[in-house]
Amino acid sequence: MSSAERLLSPRPAKRPRRHTRLLAAAAVLPLLMGALGACGYGSEKKSDETGSSAVPAAGGEKVDGLDKVKVGYFANLTHATALVGLRKGGPIQQELKGTKVAPYIFNAGPSEIEALNAGSIDMGWIGPSPAINGYVKSHGSSLKIISGSVSGGVKLVVNPKKIKTLNDVKGKKIATPQLGNTQDVAFLNWIASKGWKVDAQSGKGDVSVVRSDNKVTPDAYKSGAIDGGWVPEPTASKLVADGGKVLLDESSLWPDKKFVITNLIVKQSFLKEHPKVVEAVLRGSVKTNAFIKANPEQAKNAANAALKEETGKPLPAEVIDPAWKSIQAIDDPLASTLNTEAAHAVQAGLLEKPDLKGIYDLAPLNKVLKAEGKPTVSDAGLGAK
């Protein structure tokens, strides 16, 4: 069976999902609230997460003798590497051989950082803003960014009857996924660039920033509760399908129209204890991204099949087709842009000026890239201290 056929093959029926709040244990909560503080930029909100049944192992010996690796990601197209690579027969599980993947689905980055800090997951795909905050709040001890994943896929979509120009956004209600997540920080920074004032914590000001779960944002838009959203795919294209108009593509604000929306992170203790597992996941990630680039239609179908499994239904063509075209699979975490991301959070008042030295460990990724005959990537001076 070819790799493409394996990626598109359906998973066997899953056991019922076990629903859990990852931070319910009383012993964990004081640690997070005290030592680490809130894991969104100032946010203490916690979302429900789902620990789904482990993906069947590909067969063979367990890597590092490990039974399973707990991996977090979102059911978003901006997490395409995870959606495609973690499927049965996909490159990531193939590289892990007999070690199973236990996937955990999150709705926003801050809650995923909480799970990583609590040891509920070992690795995860996540946006740069919560990764920065998690690293800073732990004084550089919690995580490492070890790879890029996806660039692009974030848009400002608005109700064209209410908002016709960028200046019309003033005075309107615009959704972001969660206080302190990557889109929230980007939107607050854009608001500041217009000279408008918004209190970052409350979202009140010249623009009303409404923190809304991506799952409910389309319904909020249709009901008129919000006038638009600065949101990732496929939420952006869902809003367009409901009559919204793309007013701004965030990629237009970045050099070469490239910015990382999703990185791969790992808990530092897990990287130290299980380097072979981390390397296996990275090999699978690199191979998945190569597959996505070489086979965009097959990869899109595989991602949509994964979304059907995670959300109960696939995305219609009018949503997934434009959404898929707006994202780019990348291995490079574009480390040189991370200080810019951090500066946006500082300007918004959500973060004090951070020391990001040591946030990256790209040695395992560069080892994999060399073996695959691909160019290595830079940590922009933000590697090991």
Oligomer: single chain
Biggest beta-sheet profile: 8 strands, mixed
Integer-rounded radius of gyration = 20 Å
Q: Helicity, in percent?
A: 25-40%
For the termini, the CA-CA separation is 45 Å
Number of helices: 15
Pick out the low-confidence regions: 1-48
Give the SSE string. Answer: HEHEEHHEHEHEEEHEHEHEEHHHHEHH
List keywords for this structure.
385 residues, alpha/beta, 8-stranded mixed sheet, 15 helices, 13 strands, 37% helix, globular, disordered N terminus
Question: Layout of helices and strands, plus pairs?
Answer:
Layout: H1 3-8, E1 18-20, H2 28-36, E2 49-51, E3 68-74, H3 80-85, H4 91-96, E4 100-106, H5 109-118, E5 123-126, H6 128-137, E6 143-152, E7 154-158, E8 173-176, H7 182-193, E9 208-211, H8 217-223, E10 228-232, H9 235-241, E11 245-249, E12 260-267, H10 268-273, H11 275-294, H12 296-311, H13 317-325, E13 327-329, H14 338-348, H15 363-371
Parallel strand pairs: 3-4, 3-5, 8-9, 8-10
Antiparallel strand pairs: 1-2, 2-4, 5-12, 6-12, 6-13, 7-10, 7-11
Helix pairs in contact: 5-6, 7-14, 9-13, 11-12, 11-15
Q: Quick summary of this structure?
A:
The N terminus is likely disordered. The protein is built from 15 helices and 13 strands. The strands form two sheets. The chain has an eight-stranded mixed sheet. A five-stranded mixed sheet has the order 9-8-10-7-11, sandwiched between helices.
